[in-house]
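Annex B.
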Amino acid sequence: MLITLKEMMDIAEERQIAVGSFNTPNLESLQAVLSAADELQLPVIIQHAQCHEDWIPLELIGPLMVELARKAKIPVCVHLDHGETLEYLQRALELGFTSVMYDGSVLGYQENVENTKKAVALAARWGASVEAELGSMGKRESGAGDGTGEADETKIYTDPRQAAEFVRETGIDALACSFGTTHGIYLTAPKLNFSIVEEVRREAGGIPVVMHGGSGVSPREFHRAVQAGVRKINYFTYMDKAGGTAAAQCAAACREGEPLFYSQIIRAAREGMKKNVKEAMGTFALLDQ
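Class II fructose-bisphosphate aldolase: predicted structure tokens.
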């Protein structure tokens, strides 16, 4: 069942949970996420990040994402993650995406506001929702950089009062906030400031807060984030890593002299990702408390 991000955030708010939002830059990851959500009977967001365009073009993976979401028995939102240009957002909307993220976090505040307003007006033509970002997680969605979350001069924490002004001016449906997470692999434990989430929610009229850089955060910290008001959690790096680990184990288990088939590897990778996604989704929905 294909729904918008706004509808998904209403579900999350009603249940007081966070919905997992997973990048699906190939068929195996898409199958893993939707199968995990179906088995757990939980709503889910599948997304394509603009920085993954080199991995698989939006025009190739997008229609498949939309079609499988329509056929799913659980609520599914098809979301564009970290869209950097309005032109790219429009391409996703034309393909049937029900939500887009305009990422103007590296721009000055006023330019971010103006571009986000244009993104909201654009998405409205398709009845789609908009997520935007204020503050910066530092590393980009591809996981570039050391991933420590420390001594990152590009990291800018979200100002709750500015966030309230930003939400009022732009009319967005969800706000990605910077409160201590970082994209990519963590080499040291992140130091999360949950009061930022609580203050953003309070100042901005209960806006659904989005947590980027979710991979590597402990279950206890995820629980605290959800309790503070996070309603969407982006998750990809550790899911992708789980697939790679499973593929490597499959290859290592092949006996000397026996053929190793590509189909064996992708099946193992898909199951490895599915297992990791189920664990993450259960944590976001507070099923493991």
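Confidence is low (pLDDT under 50) at residues 141-150. The chain has ten helices and eight strands. Further annotation is deferred to the next reporting cycle.
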